[in-house]
Amino acid sequence: MLSIPASRPNAYTGSPLDRASARREDADYIAACLASPEVVFAPVWRSRSLMRGVEAGTPEAVLLTARAAESVRMAGGPWAFLGLWEERPVFAVDCSAAEDPLPLLPPDMGSFTDLRAVAGLLPPGEASVLAHARGLMHWRVRHRFCGVCGGSCEPRSAGNAMACTACNAQHFPRTDPAVIMLVTDGPRALLGHSTRFPSSIMYSTLAGFVEPGESLEEAVRREVLEEVGVKVGAVHYHSSQPWPFPASIMLGFHAEALSEEITIDPEELRDARWFTRAEIRDNEKHGFGLPRLDSIARRLIEDWLEAE
Fold first, then answer.
1. 48-52 and 248-257: which strand pairing?
2. SS3 track for 201-250
3. Is 12 left (phi over 0), alpha (psi -120 to 50) or beta?
4. Residues contacting 69, CB < 8 A, separation 6+
5. What span, in angstroms and rounded, lies between the C-alpha atoms of 229 and 175?
6. pLDDT in tens, 212-237
7. Residue segments in the chain with a per-residue pLDDT below the cut of 50
8. pTM for the complete prediction?
């Protein structure tokens, strides 16, 4: 099996931001960014992002000016410097403490929406910035205390790190690597229906988290063997995708099957089957659905279909 290149960028990639990480420790610079008339804020409320045009099917990110963001910043939630967008400072701010943040904002600012529901419709740069804000704020809200001694933590590096006030341990945002793979035997692809899927008919690629001391290729082979009992040989990298739902990066592969008999792990899957290209292309006729358009799983499937 030859390596199949990614046909186009994945959702949530292609960030327009210069993260300006070397300036995060410069308190005067960050203060000047906060005071800049050009500064904008990406608000996050209970893991949802502010957008307008969602109901019309034309969503766009809503970034708040300093004045518009003043009320949500006063709510006392965490904030962090994301970087520069065409020299304009961009910050994330969490307003989850408010039961309803919309009354704190000027009228007609849109609504807070689950990013995954509309990411395929957002301009790529906007989807990436909102994903960045969501992932960082998720970490900030849930890591207020030290994992070493239990002491309270305070932000450092313009909100991109935390320091324990008791033992001085440094803590940084966590990203969990997960492998996601389309297993094929030449003319067929192996898809599974997970117990966690929201759709009762969706079949998708297999996936799982990388364990300590394990290479990515080893993780692919182990996960496939554990979930469906199929042995895997060659493993070819395809692409990656940030997946801050809540804190992962998906590492995509195509993998070559060495066996075909399926024995599913019932705790992970309800079903798994081999599908031909014709069946996948006409999946509705055959009674199953495919993963969402913004997912790397869908990209792995589509690129394999086109590589025939």
1. unpaired
2. CECECEEEECCCCCCHHHHHHHHHHHHHCCCEEEEEEEEEEEECCCCEEE
3. left
4. 41, 43, 93
5. 28
6. 999 999 999 999 999 999 999 999 99
7. none
8. 0.93
